[in-house]
Amino acid sequence: MRRLVILFAVAILSMFPAGQAAADQHHVQVQLHAVGGSGVSGSVNLEQRPHDRGTHINVMATGLMPGHQYVSLYYDNHRCDLEPYSASDVIGGKYRANGGNIGTTHGNADDDLDEINSVSVRDADNFHLLACADVHPH
Q1: Cβ(33)–Cβ(41) under 8 Å?
Q2: Structure confidence by residue, pLDDT tens digits, 10-59
Q3: Full-prediction pTM beyond 0.85?
């Protein structure tokens, strides 16, 4: 009986690809992928805040230019395509890369985890897309 329960649990878990949020999941970690040969990568952690009060997002990007300013946004779409957005879509404001080519930012999104489909790293000067993470891949 115990073996059957374990096999059933493994079968259920295998239905959800890595990095994809299940309906009751409150935390997702996804990888940032370079866009257009930018060399920027990293990871994004998203955690549903209690009582449906939005999502806390942490971005850690590598391959950035030290001292240069970057901005990260979250989106309804899966490709980090610019949408009409408000200042609240910016995660933590502008940030700079350190001498190790790493930049971090964090902030709270108004949207719940299941409503956020991608997160980006963009050049703060011209909004050029450098990296994108698909939060809920199809």
Answers
A1: yes
A2: 333 333 344 444 444 799 999 999 999 999 999 999 999 998 789 999 99
A3: no
Given a contact cutoff of 8 angstroms between Cβ atoms, the answer to whether 45 and 57 are in contact is yes
pLDDT in tens, 74-106: 999 999 999 886 788 999 999 999 999 999 999
Please state the domain count of the chain.
1
Where in the sequence is the domain holding 94, given as residue range(s)?
2-134
- Residue 69: partners with Cβ closer than 8 Å, 6 or more residues away: 94, 95, 96, 123, 124, 125
Pairing type for strands 27-34 and 74-75 reads: unpaired
15 exposure class (CB count in 10 Å sphere: 0-12, 13-18, 19+): exposed
CATH number at residue 62: 2.60.40.200
Q: Report d(CA 28, CA 83) in Å as an integer.
A: 23
Classify residue 115 as exposed, middle or buried by CB count within 10 Å of its CB (0-12, 13-18, 19+). middle
Which helix (H) or strand (E) covers residue 134, if one does?
Answer: strand 129-134
